């Protein structure tokens, strides 16, 4: 097998695996209007990696992943607990503040590390060229376990989205939802970076949400369109020698903009309430 073919097979396999769960979780986030929650967890995962480097741990090593996991679990707890009771303060405002604090903390920490600027850039842009078959295997196993978990407790998780305030132990299920989101963040941020990880989660889901409110249909549509877009970005990166991660972000962005245009000329009505769709 040629090196080029091996590279494309490796990357497309990872992309296919990642987009399934990201699209599903992205639909929850969009429908709950918690669009910056993933950025909070992405940035905390990056902070965990930087903190590990500050402790003398190799960036991308097992201990560094554990540091990221601790950071995102802390973030998941904050996201679940900090729900303003004052209706004048939207929950998204609190999430935005948490993101700003996580970003500033990462920048301050990076400033104190030898070569910290390079590490901060790496957390933002990632390095998809680091992808290996062992990483793909671990990602597949973890994502499959998380999908099984969400399927087993789908009534509770979908209830959070469609019947907010009516679910028993809502803060606990909120914490478990954000922890799930955090686990996939820990796996993907070191290789994809904060920006591409956010694009994986939001753009395919947002695109699919414009055309259907059905959960299964939206996941299939979002995964399909996202995967094709990523293949286009991957091909453009290889053909024109462009940075890999930013190429995928731009390809996904082009998908979203094109979908906005297509949706604007389609007459078919999409329900505005997720309870209208099965």
Task: Give your account of this protein's structure.
- The structure is a single chain.
- The chain is mainly alpha-helical.
- The chain is built from ten helices and no strands.
- It has helices at 3-31, 37-54, 62-81, 91-112, 116-125, 133-152, 154-162, 170-209, 215-240, 244-265.
- α4 (91-112) runs antiparallel to α5 (116-125), α5 (116-125) crosses α8 (170-209) and α8 crosses α10.
- The protein is globular, with a radius of gyration of 19 Å.
- The termini are far apart.
- The model has no long low-confidence stretch (mean pLDDT 90).
Q: What is the count of helical runs?
A: 10
Order of helices and strands: HHHHHHHHHH
Low-confidence stretches: none
State the assembly state of the protein chains: single chain
Approximately what portion of the residues adopt beta-strand conformation? Answer: under 5%
- Please outline the major beta sheet: none
Fraction in helix: over 70%
Shape: globular
Provide the structure class: mainly alpha
- How far apart, in Å, are the first and last alpha carbons? 45 Å
Q: In total, how many beta strands?
A: 0
- Rg, please? 19 Å
Quote the average pLDDT.
90
């Amino acid at each position: 097998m040629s090196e080029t073919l091996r590279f494309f097979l490796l990357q497309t396999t990872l992309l296919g695996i990642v987009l399934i769960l990201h699209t599903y979780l992205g639909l929850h986030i969009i429908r709950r209007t918690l669009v910056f929650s993933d950025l909070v967890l992405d940035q905390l995962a990056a902070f965990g990696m930087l903190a590990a480097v500050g402790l003398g741990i190799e960036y991308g090593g097992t201990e560094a992943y554990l540091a990221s996991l601790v950071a995102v679990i802390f973030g998941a707890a904050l996201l679940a607990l900090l729900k303003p009771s004052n209706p004048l303060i939207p929950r998204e405002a609190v999430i935005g503040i948490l993101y700003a604090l996580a970003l500033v903390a990462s920048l301050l920490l990076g400033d104190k590390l030898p070569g910290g600027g390079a590490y901060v850039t790496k957390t933002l842009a990632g390095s998809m060229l680091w992808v290996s078959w062992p990483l793909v295997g671990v990602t597949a196993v973890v994502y499959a376990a998380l999908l099984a978990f969400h399927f087993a407790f789908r009534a509770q998780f979908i209830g959070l989205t469609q019947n907010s305030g009516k679910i028993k132990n809502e803060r606990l299920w909120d914490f478990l939802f954000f922890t799930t989101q955090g686990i996939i963040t820990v796996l993907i941020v070191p290789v994809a970076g904060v920006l591409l990880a956010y694009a994986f989660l939001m753009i395919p889901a947002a695109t699919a949400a414009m055309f259907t409110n059905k959960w299964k249909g939206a996941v299939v549509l979002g995964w399909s369109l996202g995967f094709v877009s990523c293949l286009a970005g991957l091909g453009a990166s290889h053909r024109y020698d462009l940075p890999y991660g930013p190429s995928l972000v731009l390809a996904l962005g082009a998908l979203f903009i094109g979908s906005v245009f297509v949706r604007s000329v389609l007459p078919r009505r999409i329900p505005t309430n997720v309870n209208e769709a099965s």
